Amino acid sequence: MSERTEINTLGEFGLIDHLTRNIELQNASSLLGVGDDAAVIDHFGRQTVVSTDLLIEGVHFDLAYTPLKHLGYKSVVVNLSDIYAMNATPTQIILSIGISSRFSVEALDEFYEGVYAACSKYNVDLVGGDTASSQKGFIISVTALGEVAPDKFVKRSTAKKGDLLCVSGDLGAAYVGLLFLEREKKIFLESPDVQPDLEGEGYVIGRLLKPEARRDIISFFAEKELLPTSMMDISDGLSSEILHICNDSNLGCVLYEEKIPVAEDTRNAAFKFQIDPTACSLSGGEDYELLFTISQEDHDKLVLNEQISVVGYMTEPEAGQHIITKSGNKHPITAQGWNHLTSG
Ligand code: ADP
Ligand code: MG
Q1: Which residues crowd ion ligand 2, with CB under 5 Å?
Q2: Cα(33) to centroid of ligand 1, in Å?
Q3: pLDDT tens digits for the chain (344 residues)?
Q4: Radius of gyration of the chain (CA)
Q5: How many whole angstroms from 130 Cα to the centroid of ligand 2?
């Protein structure tokens, strides 16, 4: 049996102290971190980008199959993804938690291990937070701050007609990973003796439980002096995100199904559930890839970057938003995704 230390043996201040005792600030912009009434940040003439996420147990995550360390990691990464999606570099996070007595100090330590692993990987400082008790579920609020050179942040509303529509990485994996974990949870609840069968599904499950934010793509833009005309991260499925860019930029678009990047592992895993991998990309969520538009003149700058796929282009608004299927049919893109596709 592993040890269990009750949170109330430390008290609130003792707990905060315990959770933040090893912080060493990494960024010059972090002038003052945990321990005072507020943190102090100086982005030295660069602009500050801020984003926040609230995660609620049972709504956004399920502790039945989410290891706490992964949850800590993911809570940070999904927030950093929003900062990168502005073409900015994250520098600080503020993390607040609501916890019930169901949690031990050891459990929280595991969660924070993941939090600090993400902070270290992405070079951000944890500079503050709040700790409160919750009656039942675990509640996590993460606010990320980042910096960007003046007026180099990239919005959703500034795509232009004729721009190329691009995505990073591959899509649909996290959703298929979720299907596997939900299936195993159901089987476990019905017959706890059955061993989970997740053999060979490491890729899709990893994409759900331990996503990464696309810092590399933002660095690539800087290196190539490429400024996307619009950008956002893909957290709710490609269809809904494309419609955001189209609506906010007042444009239509054409998306080619055959250009949507889907990993071989995702394709195979989706077929096990007899679902279409394209539908997973369009309507699944939690991929945390970047969706962006670039001017056609910049197309050559993408050459050799295998992490970026051109999936379509922007049109005048009157043309609407459409997907061209592999078989050459044209369908409107809908926010709830588009599931009528028979793969072929
Ligand atoms: P206050 O009563 O002013 O809200 P707290 O006692 O909650 O102050 O916080 C004291 C310090 O500890 C602050 O710097 C705050 O940002 C930090 N802090 C509190 N909870 C956490 C946490 N879970 N993680 C990191 N820092 C925290
Ligand atoms: Mg407080």
Answers
A1: 130
A2: 10
A3: 578 999 999 988 999 999 999 999 999 999 999 999 999 999 999 999 999 999 999 999 999 999 999 999 999 999 999 999 999 999 999 999 999 999 999 999 999 999 999 999 999 999 999 999 999 999 999 999 999 999 999 999 999 999 999 999 999 999 999 999 999 889 888 888 877 777 788 999 999 999 999 999 999 999 999 999 999 999 999 999 999 999 999 999 999 999 999 999 999 999 999 999 999 999 999 999 999 999 999 999 998 899 999 999 999 999 999 999 999 999 999 986 444 443 33
A4: 21
A5: 4
Question: What pairs with residue 313 in β-bridges?
Answer: 164, 254
pTM: 0.94
What distance in Å separates the CA atoms of residue 264 and residue 261, rounded to the nearest whole number? 10
Closest residue to atom 6 of ligand 1, CA basis: 13
User: Would you state the CATH architecture of domain 7-148?
Assistant: 2-Layer Sandwich (3.30)
Give CA–CA dist 2/82, Å, rounded: 37
- CA-proximal residue: ligand 1, atom 10 (nearest): 35
Report domain extents, the chain.
7-148, 164-342
Per the listing, tokens 């600030």 go with 25
Dist CA 292 CA 276 (whole Å): 24
